[in-house]
């Protein structure tokens, strides 16, 4: 009996000591759906990323300043947009949201964004489709998505695609 208890305890400890990373599970959104749902589509470089407590003090939010290189769709005032999403870390306290892929300073990105809203005195936009509304552009010009798992409609996602081809698809949707 004692041996069964020890084995049970070891199995329990092993399961709960494993570290794993959860990703959001969602329904795939096509480039056409993302484009039609967005107020602004931009390509740019992440200048800065700052996490802080929300106005009500209940959650952590992150704001990323994006230096805009190209406005693919919609209109922006100036050459920067502020993107806000849930999650981040403040004073050693972290919040990770499963369907959000955090932005990182220096990244070249293509973003599908909502209309601008004012939050705590700052005009911010949100990514359409959460992590699906973000492409990271690598040094070879390939647009890639990450940070989520699709439950359905995997075949509609444009991923690992040359950024110029992706921009062409977006502009074709905007012409319709």
Report what the structure shows.
It is globular, with a radius of gyration of 19 Å. The chain has helices at 2-17, 31-37, 163-175, and strands at 24-27, 40-53, 60-73, 80-86, 88-90, 93-95, 108-113, 117-119, 122-124, 134-137, 142-144, 148-152, 161-162. By secondary structure, the chain is of the alpha+beta class. It contains three helices and 13 strands; from the N terminus they run αβαββββββββββββα. A seven-stranded antiparallel β-sheet has the order 4-3-2-7-10-11-13. The protein has one domain (24-175): OB fold (Dihydrolipoamide Acetyltransferase, E2P), CATH 2.40.50.120.
Percent of residues in β-strands = 35-45%
CATH class: Mainly Beta
Cα distance, first to last residue? Answer: 72 Å
The count of DSSP E runs of length 2 or more, i.e. the number of strands, is 13
What's the rounded overall pLDDT mean?
86
* CATH fold description: OB fold (Dihydrolipoamide Acetyltransferase, E2P)
* Biggest sheet strand line-up: 4-3-2-7-10-11-13
Radius of gyration: 19 Å
The shape is: globular
Percent range for helical residues?
A: 10-25%
Q: What is the name of the CATH architecture?
A: Beta Barrel
Which spans of ≥5 residues are poorly predicted at pLDDT below 50?
8-22
